[in-house]
Specification:
Elements (H helix, E strand, L loop, with lengths): L1 E4 L23 E4 L1 E2 L7 E2 L12 E3 L20 E9 L10 E6 L2 E7 L5 E7 L2 E8 L6 E2 L11 E3 L5 E8 L1
Parallel strand pairs: 6-13
Antiparallel strand pairs: 1-2, 2-5, 3-4, 6-9, 7-8, 7-10, 10-11, 10-12
């Protein structure tokens, strides 16, 4: 959960073997909640694909805020991968904890979360053409090589060739 009001540190938790989770120690305020797991397409609450579309979750008392549920779809599977880095415009600083998606005209097919240095790897992708979308708090969603799905550059995976050095510059 990423606090919006008041701003602060992100809170993380792992699900149990049944998919249940609990975020303890949250301050009163509004949060953006995102779920992600290897092999599944990440999702923001409530069925949103980026920070700006996410439904805010409000913690308004010391009681439990329940029914914040997710239904993650499995990723398309194959032998390919897209590896790159998300960085801020104007400098070389990587963007940590952003969600990066491989997107087709049919929708999101894979996702991952960036590391502390902004690096990411979208693994086990099927052959095909993808557009890469990155979304992080406090910045607009950014496509690789363009400002929208329509203008973004395609990354094509075929003939045993994965894609390396797919750098996304956050505006």
């Amino acid at each position: 959960a990423v606090p919006v009001l008041p701003p602060g540190q992100a809170h993380f938790d792992l699900t149990d073997q049944f998919g249940f989770y609990r975020l303890n120690g949250l301050l009163l305020g509004s949060y953006i909640v995102v779920a992600w797991a290897p092999g599944y397409v990440g999702e923001f609450y409530d069925d949103a694909r980026n920070w700006t579309e996410a439904t805010l979750v409000t913690v308004s008392s010391n009681n439990e805020t329940g029914d914040i549920n997710f239904g993650l779809a499995p990723t398309a599977s194959g032998p390919y991968r897209i590896v790159g880095r998300l960085r801020r415009a104007g400098n070389n600083n990587g963007v940590a904890n952003a969600v990066v998606y491989a997107v087709t005209a049919e929708g999101n097919v894979a996702s991952t979360v960036t590391n502390a240095d902004g690096s990411y790897a979208l693994d086990e992708l099927a052959a095909g053409s993808y557009k890469i979308l990155a979304t992080s708090p406090n910045a607009p969603s950014t496509y690789f090589g363009g400002s929208s799905f329509e203008t973004a550059s395609e990354v094509t995976l075929e003939n045993g060739q994965s894609a390396e050095n797919v750098e996304i510059v956050e505006s």
